[in-house]
Write a sequence for this structure.
């Protein structure tokens, strides 16, 4: 009886051991198969993803972007030297129109994201007509010249004052954009 | 003959399915017979084979056997002489197998022995839990042998606060010996029951109307039994005629006992017994010998049974008979053996499938190993490429946003053309001192201030025209209300002063829509 029980126990242990071993081997092999299949799938997915990204990159026209970057760069005031030169040009332009001009630089502010490397530089131009008649038409001509002067400007405010007979004094509040590396705190 | 037998025996399983409820089994013991019943039926459905049993009767030492193969009576054999010792049973069964060429392993044994007792008790109505110890004690008191007693019971008539209990008592040693004999011969003991079970099994074949009862007089191997049953073949009472009083004619004795049985049943219950059935051997007792002593009509059964008939009945008795003395573990053994084999086959199958699956997986892995490795390396390289492409794309997008931010103007230019327009809108009668155009939160605000030297009504009219021009013109300037009040207030002030010519300061403020 005891021998029979031992035999049964031995068979059960052997059976359980065999099942565990087979199960372990099967799981190991299954793991290898799953990993391999996953690698194949990952490769396919990555190929598709890269293809999509490349397509988006081509759609972004990187070649044309260089030209656009250069154009945008030209709209920025490079530095304060450039600013002074530009303001001097405006003064000369005003003088030709009998408008005496001086300017004030306001407190610069950094541009809000996503624009980086740019400082917003507020300026205030004061113009006074030096001729006897109204300087209104001359001022309009000056404004036209200002808008076509090159750098990007955003006119914020225009004030025209006169003596009741003719317009004599003009104020233009504007912002222009300057590259940040040369900006200083005023 | 055969058709009559089929008709008589057909409903047997129904009645015993019902009477199993009266058998004394614990809940665990109730479970196994039910499982075995289901197993038997399932096995029959699956194999589509009939019942194959060696039906053996051992009546007071006389040994008879019938081979029942696939629900068909095959061969029978009667052993000469008497078996006086249990030791002779094993060779007798072995010889019976040989003589009948029995191909199966199941055996049904029907026993009539002086040591095996059958009692009919009348006890107060009580629960089965209370009844069991009483019957156990009664079995120990009534036994006529040494050693332990095994007992089975079934409930009969219940009424007037009393219940009839049929108690069968077998020597435990006798049962153990039979089990050992069967085990030695490799047979599965399916049925070990008293011979009276045969007659009781015929009850269900009798036509009994609702509200009625009947009595079956059975004569088998000289033993006279009275089996009373109600509707649906329900067993009411079993009595056996004691083999004494030979000086009284048997017909008269049987008639007297029938009358007593009828009186007892009608006394205990209100059922009517319209007729009595007689199933016996003509050479020992005939119906005509009994009828003169009984007023109730006695009808003959349509068959004339011999010992082969009774063995055939024995072969078809259900396993879950209330007086089947086969130990539960013996009855469980075939099913357990089958389950063990099934389990072993399932494990073996699982092992084979597992090994096959593992082998297949191994083969697949070996076959595709190079492919998998290449894919893994390529995936790593592709991840780097993807990162490079993403960096390039992000850079381009950032530059694009930067370019758009610098080159695109959020607000349209307004100042130059507007000032020209104002020059046309302002009439020459009013004087403009100040013009302010100011950008506020993406809108343009306009402020015009000046002086007029015309009359109030003219000034109002002129300014009204200016306001309308501004509102309707290309710039749609909404001038704020209040400029009139400001103008009229100046009128009130000037009314108290004496000036040569009126002049009014005016201011228009508005917003471009």
């Amino acid at each position: 009886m005891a021998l029979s029980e031992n035999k049964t126990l031995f068979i059960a242990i052997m059976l359980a051991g065999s099942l565990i071993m087979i199960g372990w081997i099967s799981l190991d092999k299954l793991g290898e198969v799953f990993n391999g299949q996953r690698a194949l799938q990952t490769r396919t997915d990555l190929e598709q993803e890269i293809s999509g990204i490349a397509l988006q990159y081509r759609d972004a026209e990187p070649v044309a972007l260089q030209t656009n970057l250069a154009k945008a760069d030209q709209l920025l005031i490079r530095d304060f030297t450039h600013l002074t030169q530009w303001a001097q040009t405006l003064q000369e332009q005003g003088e030709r129109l009998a408008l005496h001009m001086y300017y004030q630089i306001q407190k610069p502010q950094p541009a809000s994201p996503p624009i980086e490397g740019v400082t917003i530089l507020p300026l205030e131009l004061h113009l006074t007509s030096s001729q006897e008649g109204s300087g209104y038409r001359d001022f309009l001509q000056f404004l036209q010249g200002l808008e076509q002067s090159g750098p990007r400007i955003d006119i914020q405010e225009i004030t025209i004052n006169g003596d009741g007979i003719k317009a004599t004094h003009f104020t233009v509040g504007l912002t222009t954009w300057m590259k940040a590396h040369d900006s200083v705190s005023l | 003959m055969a058709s009559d037998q089929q008709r008589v025996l057909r409903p047997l399983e129904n009645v015993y399915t019902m009477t199993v409820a009266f058998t004394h089994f614990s809940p665990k013991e109730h479970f196994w017979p039910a499982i075995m019943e289901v197993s038997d039926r399932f096995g029959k459905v699956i194999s589509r084979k009939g019942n194959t049993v060696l039906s053996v009767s051992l009546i007071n030492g006389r040994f008879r056997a019938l081979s029942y193969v696939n629900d068909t009576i095959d061969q029978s054999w009667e052993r000469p002489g008497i078996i006086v010792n249990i030791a002779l049973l094993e060779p007798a069964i072995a010889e019976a197998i040989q003589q009948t060429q029995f191909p199966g392993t199941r055996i049904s044994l029907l026993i009539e022995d002086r040591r095996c007792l059958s009692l009919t008790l009348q006890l107060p109505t009580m629960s089965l839990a209370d009844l069991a110890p009483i019957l156990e004690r009664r079995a120990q008191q009534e036994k006529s042998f040494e050693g332990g007693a095994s007992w089975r019971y079934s409930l009969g008539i219940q009424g007037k606060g009393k219940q009839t209990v049929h108690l069968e008592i077998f020597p435990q040693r006798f049962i153990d010996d039979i089990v050992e004999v069967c085990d030695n011969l490799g047979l599965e003991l399916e049925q070990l029951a008293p011979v009276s079970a045969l007659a009781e099994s015929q009850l269900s074949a009798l036509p009994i109307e609702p509200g009625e009862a009947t009595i079956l007089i059975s004569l088998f191997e000289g033993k006279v039994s009275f089996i009373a049953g109600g509707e649906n073949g329900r067993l009411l009472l079993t009595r056996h005629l004691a083999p004494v009083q030979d000086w009284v004619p048997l017909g008269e004795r049987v008639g007297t006992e029938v009358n007593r049985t009828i009186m007892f049943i009608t006394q205990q219950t209100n059922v009517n017994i319209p007729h009595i059935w007689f199933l016996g051997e003509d050479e020992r007792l005939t119906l005509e010998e009994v009828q003169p002593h009984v007023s109730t009509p006695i009808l003959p059964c349509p068959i004339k049974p011999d010992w082969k008939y009774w063995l055939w009945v024995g072969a078809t008795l259900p396993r879950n008979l209330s007086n089947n003395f086969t130990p539960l573990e013996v009855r469980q053994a075939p099913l357990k053996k089958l389950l063990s084999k099934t389990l072993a086959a399932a494990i073996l199958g699982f092992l084979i499938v597992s090994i096959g699956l593992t082998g297949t997986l191994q083969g697949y892995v070996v076959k595709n190993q190079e492919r998998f490795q290449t894919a893994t390396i390529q995936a790593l390289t592709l991840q780097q490429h993807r990162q490079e492409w993403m960096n390039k794309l992000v850079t381009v997008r950032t530059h694009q946003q930067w370019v758009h931010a610098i080159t695109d103007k959020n607000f349209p230019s307004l100042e130059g053309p507007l000032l020209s327009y104002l020059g046309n809108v302002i009439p020459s009668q009013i004087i403009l001192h100040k013009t302010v155009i100011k950008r506020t939160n993406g809108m343009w605000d306009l402020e015009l201030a000046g002086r007029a030297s015309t009359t109030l009504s003219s000034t109002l009219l002129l300014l009204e025209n200016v306001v309308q021009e501004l509102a309707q013109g290309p710039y749609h300037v909404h001038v704020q209300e209040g400029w009139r009040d400001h103008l009229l207030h100046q009128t009130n002030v000037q009314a108290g002063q004496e000036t040569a010519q009126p002049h009014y300061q005016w201011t228009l403020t508005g917003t471009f829509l």
